[in-house]
Amino acid sequence: MIIDLVSVDTSDGVRLNGALRTTEAGKTSSLGVDIVIFHHGVAGNFYNPSFLDTIGDNLLAQGCASLRVNNRGHDITYNPTRRGPANYAQTLASRRDEGPLGAAYEVVDESRIDLRAWVDFAASAGYQRIALWGHSLGAVKVIYYLANESDDRVRCAIASSPPRQRYSAYMATSKANEIQANMDRANKAIADGEPGALMRVTVPNPNVFTARTYVDKYGPAERYDAAKHLPKIKLPMLVTLGSLEGDTADSGDALSMYGWAKELGPIADAQANLQFNLVDGADHFYSGKVPDLWAVASQWFERVASPQPV
C-alpha cells in the first residue's frame, strides 16, 4: 500500500498533516466522486487504525482516492506548528502566546478553517468531485461546515455517528447534576479570566477539556446541534448511526446519542437530499460491522452518481 504524507497550512497558520492514497493512473471512479476526505472524531488523528482504513481500501477498489486528515482537534493536546515569523525565537514565542491545540483546547467553529484548507488541497491536486466523510465529532464538523460555508467543490458528504451535542438532552438524564456542576466550574473559570483552565470530566464523555472548550461543545447555546444544521444542507448527504450506540439515556459514551435515531428519521424524511441509515448491530466504531456500513455507503454513492429523475 502506497501512502503519501501530505500537509496544509490553514488560513490562520496552523500546520495540519494527512495521508493520501491515490488510484492507478487512468482509473476512473465509479462512485460519482474522485476523492473522499476523512475527518476523525474527538482526540483522533489520521494515523491511528480505524474503520476508515477499510473504507479507504474499498474506495480505491472503485477508483476513488482517499485522504485521511488531521484537524486542529487531533489528539488530546499538542504544540502546533504555526506558519509565522522566519526567526526561530519569534516562532517559539508565537507558539507560547497562542498556546496548544488538540481536543482539550479546540473551538469547534474553527474547524471550518481546517475543512476548507483540506478541500483547497484536494482541488489544487486536480480533484474536481470531492466528498467529505466525518466520524463522531468529525461528523459534526462536516455537518457544521456544509451548513455554514458555501463550497460548491464538495459534491456530497457522509456523517457517521455524529453526537447530538445538545445540552438540553444531557440535562434530561440522571447525569444532569454532574454536567451542570462541570458547566458551573467552567463558567467560573472563564469569568475569572482563565478560559484555558483544564478540567477532567466524565460526562458527556471521559476527557480533559479547557473551560472554554467544555462550554463551547456542550453548553446551553447548543452551537453544534446537528438537528439545527442538517436542514441547511442542500447537497446529497448520508447520516449513519449504529443501533448499539445508546438504547438508554445513560449508556456511557453514547449518552449524547439517546433519542437521536428517532429524531433523524423524520429529519431525513423531510429532506430529499438527506438519507439516514441505522446500521444494525454496530457500535460507535462500527466494530465488526464495517462491511455493513460500506454496503450502505457504496449504494448511496452509486445513487448520488446516477440520481434518479424526480
Describe this entry's structure for a reader.
- The chain is of the alpha/beta class and 310 residues long.
- The protein has 2 domains: 4-164 and 225-305, Alpha/Beta hydrolase fold, catalytic domain (Rossmann fold, 3-Layer(aba) Sandwich); 167-221.
- The protein has helices spanning 51-61, 88-98, 111-124, 137-148, 167-170, 176-191, 211-218, 226-229, 260-269, 290-305; strands at 4-9, 15-21, 35-39, 65-69, 130-135, 154-160, 198-201, 207-210, 237-242, 274-279.
- An 8-stranded mixed β-sheet has the order 1-2-4-3-5-6-9-10, sandwiched between helices. A two-stranded antiparallel ribbon has the order 7-8.
- Strand 5 (130-135), helix 4 and strand 6 (154-160) form a beta-alpha-beta unit.
- The chain is globular, with a radius of gyration of 19 Å.
Layout of SSEs?
Blueprint: E1 4-9, E2 15-21, E3 35-39, H1 51-61, E4 65-69, H2 88-98, H3 111-124, E5 130-135, H4 137-148, E6 154-160, H5 167-170, H6 176-191, E7 198-201, E8 207-210, H7 211-218, H8 226-229, E9 237-242, H9 260-269, E10 274-279, H10 290-305
Parallel strand pairs: 3-4, 3-5, 5-6, 6-9, 9-10
Antiparallel strand pairs: 1-2, 2-4, 7-8
What is the end-to-end distance? 41 Å
Widest β-sheet, arrangement of strands:
1-2-4-3-5-6-9-10
Radius of gyration, Cα only, in angstroms? 19 Å
The top-level CATH class of the largest domain is Alpha Beta
CATH superfamily of the largest domain: Alpha/Beta hydrolase fold, catalytic domain
Strand content: 15-25%
CATH architecture of the largest domain: 3-Layer(aba) Sandwich
The major pleated sheet works out as: 8 strands, mixed
Query: What's the overall average pLDDT, rounded?
Result: 90
Number of helices: 10
* Number of self-contained structural domains: 2
* Fold-level CATH name of the largest domain: Rossmann fold
**Count of strand segments:** 10
Strand pairing plus helix content: what structural class?
Answer: alpha/beta
- Runs in which pLDDT lies below 50 for 5 or more consecutive residues are 85-96, 248-256
Order of helices and strands: EEEHEHHEHEHHEEHHEHEH
Shape: globular
